[in-house]
Automatic annotation (TrEMBL):
Family stated for the protein in its record: Belongs to the metallo-dependent hydrolases superfamily. NagA family.
Cofactor (UniProt): a divalent metal cation
Keyword Ribonucleoprotein: no
Binding-site residues for Zn(2+), renumbered to this chain: E126, H192, H213
Active-site residues, record numbering mapped to chain: D271
Binding-site residues for substrate, renumbered to this chain: A137, N216, G217, R224, H248, L306, S307, G308
PANTHER family: N-ACETYLGLUCOSAMINE-6-PHOSPHATE DEACETYLASE
Record carries keyword Metal-binding: yes
The protein, known as: N-acetylglucosamine-6-phosphate deacetylase
Residue ranges occupied by any Amidohydrolase-related domain in the UniProt entry: 47-378
Details of cofactor binding: Binds 1 divalent metal cation per subunit.
Amino acid sequence: MLIRSKRVWVANKFLACIVSVKEDKIEKILPYDADVKVDYDFGNDRVVPGFIDVHTHGAVKYDTLDADEQGLKRWAKYLPSEGVVAFLPTTVTQTEEVLVKASKSVANVVRENDYEGARILGINFEGPFLDVAYKGAQPEQCIVKPDIEQFYRFQEAADGLIKIITMSLNKDEDYKMTRELASQDIIVSIGHGGTTYEEAILGFANGARLMTHTFNGMTGLHQRMPGQVGASMRVRDEFAEIICDGIHIHPDVMNTYFKSKGPDYAVMVSDSISAKAVDPNDEFYLGGERVYIHPDGSARRANGGLSGSTAKIIQGLKTCVVDAEIPFSYAINSCTINPARLLRIDDRKGKIKANYDADLVVIDDNYEIVKTMVLGKFLYSRD
């Protein structure tokens, strides 16, 4: 299959060229004026790598904790409509029984591999090893101290699919669990905790590699107490999630943060819940608590506190570039190559490059999805 556009994102710039796709891989990149018959000519529409969402709880009335395999498949099938080609179903804090059941459900779908849509790359565990004082929407009664044996029970149920876990490092004595998980190549993400600046720096030094939805559910930035936000901004070569819906973080703060992290370490996430892409007047829950969808699209608990989002990654890209005035290279990297680098799959995903997976998104100048290709197949078309 030959795909031509005047704007293809290759080598960190837009280039007029032809992308040759063979089966599920990008075979080669040809000159724009090559003497070949193309299958698709997208004119001036932009062709970019497929988006990867590493922190998303659900959509289309499905939540990871539902442990409903058909619901998970429905979610995966939906995601290419917003440009997402791969994702990590994400839990929230709950009882061990609920988390084990959810983990087994995701593992069964991955093992059987009979689903269509965005590919499941693993599981993201948000909790239960958090700090009650910074719990956000996490159910307090289910928060527990770091317990490596309990984690391994979760991992066994998940068939080894847990790739990321959020922990409050001020609760991890001597960073023992952080070091243990890092030695197993499991990404420890600092979040939902009262972790100080100094504790966060030591957390990175002991193996943590990520910050969970930076600015939300953590100690904030103060001129004399930098907190977790300050640690994330200061340690520029460690990854950090950021919700780019313009609600969780003001666009001007997003601009400052992206400039601090540079083009290679910010990771855009949706943090979406089951309310995404369905009637906002329906009844929704996260972690057992009722969530209400407001006219601005925000998901909030009865007390007004934010509780996940209904954000789409393509909307986040637009907010970054248009509202926050972030350079396009920074913004597109945050939802393509940066999450791939975080997961250490950047040798096959996150770029439009020969021998990489044929994961492509075509977007117009209004940031609307025209087409999405997952592993060489167009799984979403606007028309």
